[in-house]
Amino acid sequence: MPWQETEPVKERVDFIAAVRRGDLSMAELCEAYGVSRKTGYKWVGRFEESGPQGLYDQSRRPKTSPQRTGEDVEALLLRAKREFPHYGPKKLVVILGARHRRLRLPAASTASDILKRHGLVEPRPRRRRRVIHRTEPFGTILEPNSTWSADFKGDFRLKDGVRCFPLTLTDNFSRYLLECRALTGIDTEPAREVFEKVFREFGLPRAIRTDNGAPFACNRGLGFSALSLWWIRLGIRPERICLGQPQQNGRHERMHRTLKAETVLPQAPNLQAQQRRFNTFRAGFNEQRPHEALRQKTPASVYCPSPRPYPSKLLPLQYPAGYEVRLVGDNGWICFRGTHYRISKALRGENLGLEQVGDQVFRVWLGTLELGTIDIRAPAFFPSLGDDDEDDDQLNPAA
To answer: Which residues lie closer than 8 Å to 137 by C-beta, 6 or more apart?
Structure first.
């Protein structure tokens, strides 16, 4: 056995003492201590060169390292970290690569080690992952403007005492931050003005994903709000995540975490100053910040405006040939085949399309959104978006 593993230095001291006494030859001593003659001569040489200190284990680090990151590159990395304190090593390496194309840059893991060595990385607490089952079939996101996400980030108070409610919109494919607007509440009209501005600038998406809160939805009338009905009239499909499941809008929520870290603290003096922070953040998020899901490209390099322009005039809903069209009355009912069916008061004044899908069954559409089915044999309307409990009268009494 080569040296005793419990006290290797003591064994080496005894070995050197035996060598100096000269009682045994080097070959005999090495055999007695269970080491090769090469090892024996090595420790004798170290003792003669450095004394007892030479018998301790030395660092295995090579004396020269051609692949070691140079001090100039380290300095650039640290400077970039000070410039972008919320960026991690992967993003910083991408930023440096764009600025210094001929420079040999370290791997992201090496950059992380350098930042840790200088105390510039705070370890994140480990979170237990939960398996979440999504219950609503959302549309497939294959290109820009397939689906946008919208939400109000949690409100906060400014120095002047005004509460700020940031309304944010992102494109789910490219992660492009379309707008971040500082509002003083979650009222419908200010929100609609923000959406109209974005629609005029970027065109219309095919769907907008939100939570179930105001002004995107309401807890009555099949969940329709004035804002979501306006989207449907524009040919945009509202997508609502399940109650209490913000991870179903996870891309947008992740952006909110970065937004909060970079724009909320310290408090801005007033709403105008906070909006300037949001504008600066939006420009950096879209044009400078590389995104790992985009293969370290920036959102601005991936996003392109929608080919569907915002219309100058809102036209009535149109349905394919063969659909029967019925107008929703002020009381939220329609008359079809001699029977009255209650749909929702929220849809009063809207034209619905009825598509026959069975002998006595019709699918009910609001634009491109399926509301449910009418079964003439029941007779009843069966909503697919949830019951409408606006009043306590009978659901579908025959006329």
So the answer is: none
Q: Does residue 328 contact residue 314 with C-beta atoms inside 8 Å?
A: no
In whole angstroms, give the CA distance from residue 40 to residue 23: 15
In this prediction the pTM is 0.68
Q: Are strands 163-171 and 177-183 parallel, antiparallel or unpaired?
A: antiparallel
**What is the total residue count of the chain?**
399
Q: Are 186 and 169 in contact (CB under 8 A)?
A: no
Tens of pLDDT, residue by residue over 225-260, are 889 999 999 999 999 888 777 778 888 998 999 999
Torsion of CA 35, 37, 41, 44, to 10 degrees: 40
Task: Give the least confident one: 72-81, 303-312, 346-355, 387-396.
Answer: 387-396
> Is the confidence at residue 317, as pLDDT, over 80?
yes
Domain spanning 147-302, CATH architecture: 2-Layer Sandwich (3.30)
E strand or H helix at 65, and its extent? none
How far does the chain reach from its first CA to its final CA, in angstroms? 100
CB distance 177 to 170 below 8 Å: yes
